[in-house]
Structure formats: C-alpha cells, structure tokens
Specification:
This protein is an alpha/beta fold. It is built from eight helices and nine strands. Strand 4, helix 4 (about 140-160) and strand 5 form a beta-alpha-beta unit.
C-alpha cells in the first residue's frame, strides 16, 4: 500500500509539474503551416478573401484555447491598409488584427505576436521573383511559421494548468508586409493601456533553422533586465542575441512606444519573398525547439517585476 501511495504521489507531481503534453509540437506546427501556406490560401495578400480566411483560422484556434476576444469586433480589430508597389487600381484594402486575451487577473500583460499576411499573388509588397505577378507566394516561413508559433504558445499558456503572474495578449498582425501597418494601428489603438504592457515578443520567419547560425533573438538591449532573464537558459537549439529593438517587423512598433521587445528570427534564405517559400522547406522540429526557448525566457521574465524600457544607442 505504501509503495502504491508513493507511486501515486510521484505520478501526480509529474503530471502537474511537467505538462509535457502541452509543449510545442512539431506535428501541430506542421498542421498550421500547411493550412496557412497552402496554394488554396493564395499567399494571404492583404484585403483578399484568403487573407480573411487566415484571420478566421487564427480566431478559431484562439476560441478553441478559450482565449477572450479582445478586438473591437470579437477577436478582430479591423483597419484600413494601403497597398504599396501595386499593379492593381484598388490600393485601399480592409483587413484586421486578430487578438486573444488570456486573463490571469494580473496588473500587467505580456504580448506575443506574429504577422499572418504575405504577398498574395505577387501584386503587393516586395516580391523578389523575376516575374512575380500571378504567382502564389505561399509565405510558409514568412510568416506562417511565426503564426504557428503564436498558436502553439497560446495553446501552451492556456492549457498548462498554471496561473501565471502576468496576463497574455496573443496577436496575429495584418498588413505587416505593407509597412508594419497592423502593429502600428494596434499601438495607436490599444485595447489595454500601453503602460500596462510588460514586454512584446515577436516571431517573424522562425521556420528555416540553420544549426550553424542558430536562431537570432533581437531586443536584448531594450531592457536592463534581459541579461538576467537569459541567464542559465540552456537549449539544444542554438541561439544568439542582438541588442537592436527596431527593425523590419512588428516588434519595432512597440519599441517605438518605449516597450521592451524580443524578436525571434532564423535569418534570410534564397526563397525569401519568392513563390518558392513552401511548407516542405520548414524545419518543424527545430521550430518547436525555438518555441521552447521562448517559453523559458517568458517564464523567467515572469519571476521579475515589470521590465524597464531601455533605448538602444549602439
């Protein structure tokens, strides 16, 4: 009987303390990327029916994880974007951010984000293809990989049976490829006060991991507390840090508002902004490792008071 009780206690401790089943899954990552970057989605160009389908897919996953809608229209925060370098006359497009809230009853909130739009049929944004018009730009790495990461982190933090010391806002940004339009709209029309945001963590192109390079994590210089957060974070997935808080993705909109940021990115490649950025080229297992690094960093940061912003000057 004593041995049985000991076994039961050990089993319960393991299931409560180590929720392995909710950790990022390569299979789940693959599922999301193949959905968002299929030819049927026609490149998720801003203002397209397929872009709307992508937004609804993200919202359906937020609902599945029991996040609270935090947009002005359910999970959606609509806004208007202008298409740049366009070869069609209708350059004003309606689109949206998708926002889900995990309420832990805390004073401050952590934002996790990734953009869900891409270049569509090569008629908007900045395709690198020789003759882009009419070709589907699937954007598997850019940025279905980041959205898959966003959804896996939403799953983890909503299902890990832990009430964290901070709330979470999970945001899929629209119109990033047109100049960070969605994230700029968000920070100028926030559903919560900006001074209640602890920090923002952004994922843009995290699907093409090169073990020689590792994943880059920007924003290391945007708070004096980041070195303490990164201390003792060990991972089989190689990573390196960069101080910069600004840059060509949505974290830059938050840095401009004096909010500490992190930016996860596996680097450029020959398929960047081309029709050849396809799902089968994504390393799903490595992406899961990258997400585990992010979880470790977020959990370390939640042990500290609200981070103080620091401007990066060098």
């Amino acid at each position: 009987m004593k041995n049985y009780l000991l076994f039961l206690l050990v089993f319960l401790h393991a299931t409560v303390s180590f929720p392995q089943n909710v950790h990022p899954s390569p299979d789940q990552i693959s599922k999301h990327i193949y959905k968002l970057a299929s030819d049927k989605m026609k490149g998720r160009g801003t203002g397209s029916k397929e872009n709307e389908k992508a937004a609804k897919y993200v919202a359906s996953q937020f609902k599945r994880y029991k996040l609270q809608p935090q947009g002005t229209n359910g999970f959606f925060q609509p806004f208007t974007a202008k298409i740049r370098r366009v070869v069609v006359p209708d350059s004003i497009r309606e689109t949206r951010n998708v926002i889900g809230f995990l309420n832990n009853g805390a004073d401050y909130t952590i934002i996790i984000g990734a953009h869900f739009d891409h270049l569509g049929l090569g008629k908007q944004g900045s395709s690198k293809a020789e003759k882009p018009e009419g070709q589907i730009h699937n954007g598997a790495d850019d940025n279905a990989s980041g959205v898959a990461g966003l959804l896996e982190l939403a799953r983890y933090f909503s299902q890990n049976d832990v009430k964290e010391a901070y709330n979470f806002l999970f945001i899929a940004f629209g119109a990033e490829e047109l100049g960070l339009v969605g994230s700029r709209y968000f920070v100028n029309n926030p559903p919560i006060p900006l001074d209640k945001i602890n920090f923002m963590s952004n994922m843009d192109m995290i699907g093409r991991y090169d073990p020689k390079r590792g994943v880059g994590i920007g924003g290391y210089g945007t708070s004096e507390e980041w070195p303490a957060v990164f201390k003792d974070v060990a991972s089989e997935t190689k990573f390196f840090t960069d101080k910069a808080g600004s840059g060509g993705s949505d974290h830059g909109s938050f840095y401009a508002k004096k909010i500490p940021v992190l930016f996860f990115h596996t680097g450029g490649h020959d398929d960047y902004h081309k029709p050849t950025d396809d799902p089968e080229k994504v390393d799903f297992k490595a992406e899961a490792g990258i997400l585990n690094i992010q979880i470790n960093l977020i959990e370390n940061a939640m042990k500290l008071p609200k981070l103080k912003f620091k401007e990066v000057t060098d």
